[in-house]
Structures are given as C-alpha cells and as structure tokens.
Specification:
Blueprint (H helix, E strand, L loop, with lengths): L7 H7 L1 H16 L6 H8 L3 H7 L3 H25 L4 H17 L1 H9 L1 H6 L2 H16 L6 H20 L7 H25 L1
Helix pairs in contact: 2-3, 2-5, 2-7, 5-6, 5-9, 6-10, 6-11, 10-11
Amino acid sequence: MDVTMDGTKQQRRGNTRQRIQDVALELFAEQGYEKTSLREIAERLEVTKAALYYHFKTKEEIIVSIFQDLTKPIEELIEWGKEQPHTLDTKQEIVRRYSQILTDASPLFRFMQENQATVRELQIGDSFKDRMRGLRDIIIDPDARLTDQVRCVSAIFTLHAGMFLLQDFEGDPEEKREAVLEVAVDLVTLAHEGSRRS
C-alpha cells in the first residue's frame, strides 16, 4: 500500500480496525470467504486472536463493517443528488462520482460479485439494493418515458459491468474506466434529451 502525499493511506494503515478490514478482504479474495478463518486474519496481521476480537468477534462483523464503511460515499452521493436540480449536468456528475466510488471500493465490489450467496445471507444485498434504488431515483426524471428510465438504470449497471467484464481486456485500467464512464454518461445524456422531447 503506497503512502500518498496527503497521508490518507498512511492514516488508514495506522488504523487497526481498517487494517483488519483490508487484510480480511485480501484473504476473502484470495481463498474465499468460507475458507478464511479469524485465526488466519490475525496471523496475516501479526496480532493475537484476542487483539482481533477486541475489534470484531466474527467474520460477519468484519464484512458488514467493510460494506458500511465503503458504501457510505454512495449514501452521501444520494443525499447530495436529492438537493440538486434535475439537470443534465447533475446527472452526469452523479455518474462520474459513482464511477469514482466504485473504483475506490473495487475490492468490496469484487467480493460481492464473487460471494453472492454470502452477500444474500448477511443481508448486505438488501442494503445494497436500497442504495441502488436511491441512486436510480435521483438520476431518473419522474415523468421520463420508460425507455429513458431504462437508459438511466443501464448507466449505473454499465459502471458495474465495466468493473468485472473489462478485467480480461487488454489495456490500461484507467483508460478502461474512462471508456466505461463515457458510455454511462452517454446513456444518461440520451435519457435526459429523450425526456425533454417527450
């Protein structure tokens, strides 16, 4: 983990709770959620199991806390979007910000994609669906045609699909992210222009 000039990664590294989350997510990605034990997380961190217990009693507590922390920016984006006018600029900005949120939380979203049964069991899925509905509601014009509503929802899922489907494509990750973002912004723009014509 690189240390940035502003110290944000250093601050995260120094925070024991966040270090536990980071290491747990690494292990879940490497060997699967079910096959990872609290003991292995403690060993990777080079702490005792008791030290780990001080912060988290179960793996479930760890993954739920990761989900809550890394998806908080989605809630903040939804709140920001509710306060904005329903303009094309606002919708495009929502898509841009959401793209960045996905990038920042990509290990979590990869975990969710690869561990869908666990996500359902822990009810993280329900919370995530609620956030997606909130996001949908702020980029769709209430009186938009169904086709334009579908375009807006598709913009969100284009960002999701881009995270996973483009992993196998050759090329720079940032260029791929920009290409996916461009398509998502185009969809929102088309939807907005379509709702203005109807």
